[in-house]
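Batch queue: ligand-bound targets. Current item pairs a single chain with magnesium ion. No template structures supplied; prediction is de novo from sequence plus SMILES. Inputs echoed for audit trail.
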Amino acid sequence: MKRSIVLVGMMGAGKSAVGAELARRLGVPHLDTDAEIARAAAATIPEIFARDGEDFFRARETEVLGRVLRGPPAVVSTGGGAWMRPENRVLVAGAGVSVWLDCPLALLWHRVRHKPTRPLLQTQDPLGTLTRLLEERAPTYALAEVIIPVREGDSIETTASRVLEAVRAHQAAPAISPAQEP
Ligand SMILES: Nc1ncnc2c1ncn2[C@@H]1O[C@H](COP(=O)(O)OP(=O)(O)OP(=O)(O)O)[C@@H](O)[C@H]1O
Ligand SMILES: O=C(O)C1=C[C@@H](O)[C@@H](O)[C@H](O)C1
Ligand SMILES: [Mg+2]
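Prediction returned. Tokens below.
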């Protein structure tokens, strides 16, 4: 594996779960930016948001992403908002293939509704917030090089297999030079 695989998408899409399975199969490190930030801060993600604010978290996220992408090829599970920052997309483009786990709203909600670990969903109307975030973010997630639709009933293993297959097909495809574009 020459380039890292970088999973992007909404909270609950399965970036951490599928990333761990992919790394195990490929025999490469699995790095989860949320986990790396929490480890360095010796605090949980909700604690960091509450104590230092979202801007601080986003700055650490960009630092961590840059650091893990400078290392040997790995599977990188990003936080749900990481792909929204243009500088993070530039970092990913330089070192890895980006993969959007494209998961429908109902399935995301089913997975995140009972967990207090996502500070952005600690609102009066968490489903409304999740809906708005997905609507706002989907066009940007769609800029990822590889898109994997994830549907109810797809296991972590099945999703990991589909990611691997799609990444291999993507890497085997000849790059289109600007001169060939219409
Ligand atoms: N394909 C799947 N089948 C069943 N459960 C899954 C699947 N993918 C993820 N899950 C479960 O859904 C929950 C959320 O997944 P996970 O933590 O991997 O999401 P995430 O994309 O990393 O979210 P975040 O952006 O908040 O870190 C976990 O409990 C995980 O085990
Ligand atoms: O979607 C988001 O913006 C977030 C997702 C999580 O992975 C964490 O990075 C944090 O809770 C923010
Ligand atoms: Mg995660």
